[in-house]
Amino acid sequence: MTTVHDLRRVDDEAFQQLLDRNAVWQRMVAVGDRLPDLPLLEADLGPIHLDRLLDTGPVVLMFVRFAGSADCEAALRAYRKSLLPELTRLDAHLVAVSPQAPARLAAVKHREELDFFVASDPRHVLIDALNIGFSSPGADRVLGTRRSVLPFASVVVADRAGVVRFADIRANWSDPVPAAEIVQTVASMS
Prior knowledge:
With 190 residues, the protein is of the alpha+beta class. It has one domain (4-188): Glutaredoxin (3-Layer(aba) Sandwich), CATH 3.40.30. 38% of the residues lie in helices and 22% in strands. The protein has eight helices and nine strands. The chain has helices spanning 4-22, 50-54, 70-82, 84-89, 102-111, 125-129, 139-143, 179-188, and strands at 39-42, 46-49, 59-63, 93-98, 117-120, 133-135, 149-151, 153-158, 164-170. A seven-stranded mixed β-sheet has the order 2-1-5-4-3-8-9. The chain is globular, with a radius of gyration of 15 Å.
């Protein structure tokens, strides 16, 4: 049986191989790119559309691997506490995105009392559009989607026009993007 620890080791190895082999950074989402208008499945609400969120404020997309990942869940809790109040004050939306099935994400959303959007990208369409995914054999069982693509630990901030103003992609969530950097970017757009 594949454990979360096994997936983390495989994920880190896969990430390093991609860096070494493909110069993957050059193809990932970057400042100045446009955020694609793709629907996501919010764990409680069903389909949500990024363009509709952008109509009412900037969007901060936080890409996490799956519920059950200790680092990802710690980042969700930390951002709920330190980032969400500031984003709310700035009329910005926080959306956690994972390729995991919506029902599995709903469990972590309720357990951790996350009062922001927690959305599924089960076919990893947005993850692929931003070029922040990688193949992780065995992840399909954890994700519950029959797919084995996970996102790198990423935060993407888009202004109301859908232009990416901040993009930070990392190997894993053990060292998350500081909330202050994200808040500073959003505040500069007002």
